[in-house]
Amino acid sequence: MSGAIHLAPGSRVPAWVEAIDRACFGEAWGPLDEYEHIWATYPYGFTRWRIIPEVQEAELLRIGVAVELRRSGHGRRLLRHAQAQLARLKVEVLHLEVRISNSAARSLYESEGWVYRGVRKGYYRDGESAALYSRGD
Ligand SMILES: CC(C)(COP(=O)(O)OP(=O)(O)OC[C@H]1O[C@@H](n2cnc3c(N)ncnc32)[C@H](O)[C@@H]1OP(=O)(O)O)[C@@H](O)C(=O)NCCC(=O)NCCS
Known about the structure:
Elements: E1 4-7, H1 15-25, E2 36-41, E3 45-52, E4 57-65, H2 74-88, E5 93-99, H3 103-111, E6 115-120, E7 130-135
Parallel strand pairs: 4-5
Antiparallel strand pairs: 1-2, 2-3, 3-4, 5-7, 6-7
The structure holds coenzyme A.
């Protein structure tokens, strides 16, 4: 994917990624810990993942596309790129939780082959439930 950058564990998160993060989620997540990676394309968006080293699996923490650039395929390309990079790291089993009401993201995941695994009731601080998805397992 042309123009994609990789931010390795422990990296500082660039201001433009934080700005998209804030616009999408209300607050930026913060610096990458020792297991977290970001793949991003300027100025479109980013994906943030945490690898679970004991099992060589990963969790999608966030994917966000700049509000004015949505619905042009950037989210799909970012997701595919990150999945391919994780596969190169031998991480093929992937998990995520998403707000049950987030039909845009759920439609993206389902169209990319993620498998719906059920609901985690009241998962978010505001009481909304999470839909659970995985792939590669
Ligand atoms: C979810 C998100 C990343 C999608 O990014 P995007 O660049 O707009 O998505 P794409 O243009 O690549 O669309 C891919 C697919 O996602 C789905 N989709 C995206 N936006 C949608 C919308 N508004 N309504 C319904 N489906 C939508 C569709 O299936 C779409 O495929 P199609 O265009 O062939 O119908 C983006 O909406 C976003 O940043 N949302 C806010 C952050 C968020 O909720 N992230 C997910 C939870 S971590």
